[in-house]
Each structure stands twice: as structure tokens, then as C-alpha cells.
Amino acid sequence: MLPNEVKNLGYEKMTLVQEATLPAILQGKDVLAKAKTGTRKTLAFLFLWEVEVLLQRKKNLRQNRCEIIVATPTRLSDHIDNTRGFEGRLRDVNVLVLHEADCLLAMRIRKDVEKIIAAVPEQQQTLIFSATVPEEVHQFCHNALRKDHEFIDIVQESSEETRSQAQ
Q1: Domain range for residue 19?
Q2: What is the pTM (predicted TM-score) of this model?
Q3: Is 167 within 8 Å of 132 (Cβ atoms)?
Q4: Overall domain count for the chain
Q5: 27: left (phi over 0), alpha (psi -120 to 50) or beta
Q6: Where is the Helicase ATP-binding domain (predicted)?
Q7: What is the pLDDT of residues 80-132, one digit of tens each?
Q8: Residue 40 maps to which CATH number?
């Protein structure tokens, strides 16, 4: 069931990946979610953000805190290295979302992602979404996620992986 704040944005029901991940996300668990391209993985964590923003907007504005940062890992890494005071703003991060993890690691920017993970607080929640979860992503998640994270796989075993469908 969608929160009223999300319904007010025009969404009537959740997709399978949203329905499967939202309870774990709201419990504060780290999540690795595998779902095919086009299943609206992005909205699973954006729904959470919309609800949080509606609840925290006034408080955050008074404290001059960032509500959300959207950036490529390379650009965010560049800010950490070169923008005065930027790394200090990351100390308030509550949730780190890595979207399309398989693509991020395939693009050979793992060092940038690891720098970002090192810059945010250890107690923050990490959400990783990906269409495929090859061994490289599993190995990465071993270091990036808490040991009690949930792996949510809604790709049916009988169906093809997203990458093989796209080729």
C-alpha cells in the first residue's frame, strides 16, 4: 500500500520491486535489489525520499542541510577532492543509493564509488539497485553493505537476464 504522500504524486500502486524492497528500506536495512530494467527500481528509493522530504523539509531548510544529492560517482568523487567543505556535508548522509551497480562497476569507476562510501557515515543505510548481479557486484556488496543486508531478487529463474535480452 502506498503512503498518501506518494499517492498525491499520481502513483496508484507499487511495482513488484517497489513492493518487495520498501518494507526493508523503511526498517533501515541495507538492501541489494535485483530487478529487470523497466521495473521502476528508481522509484523504490525515490518513494522513500519523497516521504522523508515531506516530513523533514522545514527542519532541513532551517539547518541548511542537503536533502538529496544526485550525481555520477566520478563527479561526486571530484567534489570530495576539490570542493571546499563538501566532504563535511556528506557527514549528514542518512541513505546512500547506488543505482545500476552492475553498470557502475563495469565502467571501471569502482575507486570513485569506494571513495564516496568512505566519505559517508558508517551507520548510514546503503541501497544498491541493479538489473543484474554478477560476481563483481556481489564482491563489492560484501564491503559496501552491512552483513545483515537483504538481497531481494525479483527476477524469476526461468526468465533471461536483462543484459541477454537487450543484446
Answers
A1: 4-166
A2: 0.69
A3: no
A4: 1
A5: alpha
A6: 40-151
A7: 999 888 888 788 788 888 988 888 887 878 889 999 999 988 888 999 999 99
A8: 3.40.50.300
